[in-house]
């Protein structure tokens, strides 16, 4: 069932979820899982990755997670892991968009809120001369500190104390070569066996989505809510080091997805994600849901 077709307006969906916030996590997550995947989850003895993510939401409480889902605070965690060289250049962090001195920014940059997720709450500026600054300030401030609900009951995001605005360097990429290719490493207790590779992305619309093993062999597996990757992606020459960095960043947690970019051999940290797709995804073949869950110990 696609509940977004029934309630197409996001504000309406959020209002309903806010009204239902009194429902215990176990019940609400089971209902959401059924609505989105057409089956009830086994939360007592979970086997699937998608089921274990629901249990992860309910039971795993590591205060470090709140720092790691904040797009500015996570930079300190990366530094603590001695991987500061992976960080993209940060031009500043602000409590109010009106504090941003746009005159001092380069012609290209990216602005986002520190608590945004799923590609939301982002402004990508490729030409400052064409940017409506007043509109951007208004839009950015409207995104601040408005999360009074947690739709997927994802505990880590409730630990972000306040929403801020971060301005970062725009990462150049070649659209003819797939654009900014995203490497998302699935790590369990500091070990990665699989990753997503995403290319040809048009934010909020479409992307090519591939699933690979740790040796960068593309698998005959698709995620049913994504478009299969058609482009052939060459293995980066420094892929082994990317893998090493991902595993280092994941050591503190039973599970985290470590996202990185690789532009002309320069590895750039993206983010840490604890609840991939909020656990509401399915694969073809279905067996892959169980395979991903094998090493997920919670």
Notable characteristics:
298 residues; alpha+beta; D-amino Acid Aminotransferase, Chain A, domain 1; six-stranded mixed sheet; four-stranded antiparallel sheet; 27% helix; globular
Task: Describe this structure as you would to a colleague.
By secondary structure, the protein is of the alpha+beta class. A hairpin with an 8-residue loop joins β2 (109-113) and β3. The radius of gyration is 19 Å and the shape is globular. The chain has helices at residues 3-6, 10-19, 25-37, 49-59, 64-68, 74-80, 133-143, 239-250, 287-293, and strands spanning 90-94, 109-113, 122-125, 165-169, 182-188, 191-202, 206-213, 222-223, 227-228, 255-263, 266-273, 283-284. The two termini are 29 Å apart. The strands form 3 sheets. The protein has a 6-stranded mixed β-sheet with strand order 9-7-6-5-10-11, with helices on one face. A 4-stranded antiparallel β-sheet has the order 1-4-2-3, with helices on one face. Strands 8-12 form a two-stranded antiparallel ribbon. It folds into 2 domains: 41-84 and 175-298, 2-Layer Sandwich (D-amino Acid Aminotransferase, Chain A, domain 1), CATH 3.30.470; 89-169, no CATH class. It is built from 9 helices and 12 strands.
């Amino acid at each position: 069932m696609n509940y977004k077709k029934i309630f197409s307006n996001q504000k309406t969906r959020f209002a309903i979820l806010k009204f239902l916030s009194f429902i215990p996590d176990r019940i609400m997550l089971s209902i959401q899982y059924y609505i989105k995947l057409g089956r009830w989850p086994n939360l007592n003895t979970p086997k699937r990755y998608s089921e274990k993510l629901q249990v992860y939401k309910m039971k795993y409480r590591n205060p470090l997670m709140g720092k790691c889902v904040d797009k500015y605070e996570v930079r300190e965690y990366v530094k603590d892991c001695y991987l500061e060289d992976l960080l993209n250049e940060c031009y500043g962090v602000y409590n109010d968009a009106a504090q941003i001195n746009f005159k001092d920014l380069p012609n290209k940059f990216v602005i986002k809120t520190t608590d945004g997720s799923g590609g939301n709450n982002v402004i990508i500026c490729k030409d400052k001369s064409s940017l409506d600054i007043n509109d951007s300030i208004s839009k950015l401030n409207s995104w601040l500190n408005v999360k009074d609900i947690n739709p997927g009951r994802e505990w880590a995001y409730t630990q972000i104390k306040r929403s801020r605005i971060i301005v970062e360097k725009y990462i150049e990429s070649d659209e003819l070569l797939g654009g900014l290719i995203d490497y998302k490493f699935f790590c369990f207790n500091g070990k990665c066996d699989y990753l997503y590779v995403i290319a040809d992305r048009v934010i909020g619309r479409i992307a090519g989505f591939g699933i690979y093993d740790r040796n960068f062999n593309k698998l005959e597996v698709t995620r049913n809510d994504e478009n299969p990757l058609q482009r052939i992606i060459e293995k980066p020459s420094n892929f082994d080091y990317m893998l090493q960095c991902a595993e280092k960043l994941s050591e503190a947690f039973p599970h985290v997805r470590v996202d990185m970019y690789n532009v002309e051999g320069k590895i750039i940290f993206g983010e840490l994600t604890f609840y991939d797709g909020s656990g509401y995804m399915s694969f073809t073949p279905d067996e892959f849901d169980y395979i991903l869950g094998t090493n997920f110990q919670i």
